[in-house]
Write a structure and sequence with these properties.
Layout: H1 2-18, E1 27-31, E2 34-37, H2 38-48, H3 61-83, H4 90-124, E3 127-136, H5 140-146, H6 157-170, H7 175-182, H8 186-189, H9 206-212, E4 225-226, E5 231-241, E6 251-255, E7 258-262
Antiparallel strand pairs: 1-2, 3-5, 4-5, 6-7
Helix pairs in contact: 1-3, 6-7
Length: about 260
């Protein structure tokens, strides 16, 4: 009860002072001997409330009250644990070490793996692309071996044919002409390899996605792509800003032989 009272008392003292804090290093509260600066409080708010760039000056009074209550009670519990010598307990030390390791792994995964990947995909989702491809499937006698190897096989006739096609393109022959001659997909081949649809990232196999969305309109990916279907050579034909469509509808329901219309 006293801890709760003490926490609320600190909140009451902090709020009027926050508006007069000169800079982020200004001490706005003390919990025991611990000084809390505006910068520390703001960082704790951003981290714990998942509001990465939000400043305390823009937070509503109710939200600020709630966070201060939580944060001060947390600091009081930490000081209480230190007073009782918990930080010297071997089992507590082991738990802290394990928690630090887990948090470090989570932080690393989020900052260096998850966040950059999500930012990349969100950026690329703004594009819709049309592409052309040349597909050369594996020969029947080599198909099974391709399931267990990510490396093209030098003696595979499909690989040899794919290299011939790529060599022609790099030497200056039109992609469309090479597609008509080499691509096993005759439906797209007769159209120069062009797929008459637009795609956003995530709709194709990963190998094709990664290569296709690294290109600019008119460019051919410089390497032959090995997939579960066969060897691909791809070209980005054109791209457009992705359209977001918001449809409306009219709903007609029937109840007891009467009609209700909702728009």
């Amino acid at each position: 009860m006293m801890r709760k009272f003490f926490g609320l008392l600190i909140i009451a003292l902090i709020l009027p002072f926050m508006s007069f804090a000169k800079n982020e290093k200004s001490v706005i509260a003390k919990v025991g001997k611990e000084e809390i600066t505006l910068e520390q409080l703001e960082k704790a708010f951003q981290r714990n409330m998942n509001r990465k760039n939000e400043k305390l000056a823009t937070v509503s009074k109710d939200s600020l009250y709630n966070f201060l209550d939580l944060y001060i009670n947390y600091r009081l519990k930490v000081l209480d644990a230190i007073d009782k010598g918990f930080e010297k307990d071997s089992s507590v030390k082991a738990d802290i070490t394990q928690n630090r390791k887990s948090l470090a792994e989570s932080f690393y995964f989020d900052k260096y793996l998850l966040s950059p990947t999500m930012e990349y995909y969100m950026k690329q989702r703004q594009r819709a692309v049309k592409f052309a491809y040349i597909l050369i499937t594996y020969s029947p006698e080599m198909a099974q071996k391709h399931y267990t190897s990510n490396i093209p096989m030098a003696n595979d006739s499909a690989w040899i044919k794919a290299k011939e096609a790529m060599k022609l393109i790099k030497s200056g022959k039109a992609f469309e002409e090479v597609a008509k001659e080499y691509s096993i997909d005759k439906e797209t081949a007769k159209n120069g390899g062009v797929v008459n649809s637009y795609f956003t990232i995530g709709k194709l196999q990963r190998e094709l996605d990664k290569a296709l969305f690294s290109l600019k309109a008119g460019e051919v990916y410089p390497e032959i792509l090995k997939t579960s279907y066969g060897y691909f050579i791809i070209k980005l034909v054109t791209e457009e800003p992705r359209l977001v469509i918001k449809p409306s509808h009219i709903l007609i329901t029937f109840e007891n032989d009467s009609v209700h219309v909702k728009a």
